[in-house]
Amino acid sequence: MDLTYTAAEEDFRRELKSWLAANIPDEWTRPGFWEALGDDESFRLRRDWERDKALAGFAGIEWSTEYGGRGGTPGMKAIYDVETVAAHAPRTVNPLGLAFLAPTVMAIGTDAQKKDIIGPMLRNEVIWCQGFSEPGAGSDLAALATKGVRDGDDFVVNGQKVWTTNAVHGDKVFTMVRTEAGSQRHRGISMLLIDMHQDGVDARPLKQMSGASEFGEVFFDDARVPATEVLGEIGDGWRTAMLLLSFERGASGIGQYTEFRRQYDEIVEVARKLGRDTDPVVRGRLARVLTELECLRLHAMHVLTQVEQGRDLGFEASMTKLQWSETFQDLWEVYDDILGEDATLDSLGDLDLRPLHAQAMWSRSVTIWGGSSQVQRTITAERVLGLPR
Amino acid sequence: MFFALTDDQREFGTAVTTYLAERFDLDAVRGVVEDTAGDGHPVALWKAAGEQGWLAVTVPEEHDGLGLGLVEAQVIARALGAGVAPGPWRGTVLAAEAIRLAGSAEQQAAWLPRLAAGEAVGALSLRAPGAAVEYAGIADVVVVRSGDGLALVERGGFTAQAAGSYDGTTRLATVTVDGAGEPLPGADAAAIADLTARATVLVASDLAGVAREAITRTVAYDREREQFGVPVGSFQAIKHALADLHVGVTMAEHAVLYAAHAAGTGAEDADLAVAVAKAKASDAAAAATAAMIQYHGGIGYTWEHEAHLFYKRAKRLAGQYGDADAQRERIATLTIG
Questions:
Q1: In this predicted complex, what is the ipTM?
Q2: To the nearest whole percent, how much of chain A has pLDDT over 70?
Q3: How far apart are the C-alpha atoms of A207 and A239, rounded to whole Å?
Q4: Do A209 and A269 belong together in one domain?
Q5: Does residue A275 belong to any structural domain of this protein?
Q6: Residue A89 is part of a domain; what is its CATH number?
Q7: Structural domain of residue A351, as residue ranges?
Q8: Which chain A residues contact residue B255 at CB under 8 A?
Q9: What is the pTM for the complete model shown?
Q10: Minimal-distance CA residue of chain A relative to B238
Q11: For chain A, what is the domain count?
Q12: Does the annotation count A41 as an active-site position?
């Protein structure tokens, strides 16, 4: 057992912390600052800041320097995840690209793709969307119907994607498209890299239950994409997608723990303000969530250890997703219940509750996107425990 | 970062598991459970525990021990839990820990080599006088509370009154100390807290072992057992429940491993880690063993089936050194105030 980081990793921590301290304005750390900005302004500010961060060398931490990464260790990435949350750094505007597309490109992309995709992504010159879900293909991704028909050197794409994060701010979308006419289920699909800045692509925002519009719909109406703009082989998109989704562990548990643990303390503050911190029922429920949060931290340490040892985590990603998403949701349910009769008020005295409500609303989504809890349980039962299909 | 067992630590656990599978399987456990008049202390198993170093694990090398830590001890505890193994292993290890942490040099020299070799059986009670203690009836030495401290009492200096228990994988007895016993001079509040943490971790580890084995056996059964023409494990209601249990038990295993490290090294967050581990392991074992009965159907409720051995052991240990609710109140105190 050795729970320390190396000297080089600790040096990296110091360097990163000092950059963050110098580059995050105080007002950004004020509760409610980002919520008050509005989607577009918030996106612009975060996009530029993240570019500066990349130019300072704090992006693609564990990725090869050949493609613009920092060439660091998995431990440095864990430190990065913790310290950016601790410093109240804004959330990334390129989450799908960074967590999923980039590692997939590094694994199976052509040399040209590695060069063309990763560097510009790190500098936010290209914001990537993920085009997977459709109105008729949610958890059942293989039911997708978006069609691509070969026309000379191009595919002509028609169809609709939905729940697309950053749809209206996106530049390109990695899209699951049925490129073999008449193909069924997992066969005949390709992952095409489609430019969203063209007449054949129309992105519209969708308003979420929280009131924000972080996701949207993308319509393809004779959109064109060169047949060379494919990740993996043509017709082999299902395999590409499964590889891509296996990088779910890129959503770092240790960073999430840091964020959720702070939220736990914020909720404890609310309980204290309402005099509910001495209520044994509330204490028991908070402690139950804290127990799961600590388990999340330890699970993240376990995952990091496995990565450093070069072990394949296989379908353990489903467990990671279940643990963080269910715990996060439980945390915010306790918050709602602590407020009791005043659960829906915008403020209590001088305490603005709206940023907290926004988190509570968001918590409803996390057990759906990225593979719902039900899908994750089925994967865990079949692929990890070996129960029959 | 290395949050895992080393190969050596893993092999320690495998050795216990292999021994139990080959030499003390569930039929042997059942023999102990059904022999209600017996002392619940199988000689062959005890001999193996002495010879293979399971009892010597935390005893310093200068007293003929292995000088290893709580992480190694929890590996053994987990394997014994998975095998629902009877016998005074934990009481002996913890009596030795009490003497190591708080005993005089003479007490250590007198007792640690004997406890490490299995020549003496130990028992520990941190509860009030009159409480039931594991294997006090056959103990050569018990460590009990005495005023604000602890006392060591040799056989002859205490009376053990057998207390019936529906968990047949142990034997319980109430202890009445006839004299004052021999005080452990170093048993101040800090030493007792340290000892309590170590005891709690070993119980939590046993529970994690019970829970993991309950899930593994249930999955194996539900892959084979057919109803409606298909294995019952193909039903989503059962799959999802077992998936959640697998996640819960895995988290309990993480929590116990970390608590062993934290308590064993006196880490800053050791108190929280131990409370988290015991809360999680208690709940995981209770849920997993109840599910073991449920997802075996009627056979799981019979005496003939092994599910009740796991369930009853989980019931007994879930409450030791504070049940999940008590641990959560501790967690609340540490994180809320």
A1: 0.97
A2: 99
A3: 32
A4: no
A5: yes
A6: 1.10.540.10
A7: 250-384
A8: 291, 294-295, 298
A9: 0.96
A10: A381
A11: 3
A12: no
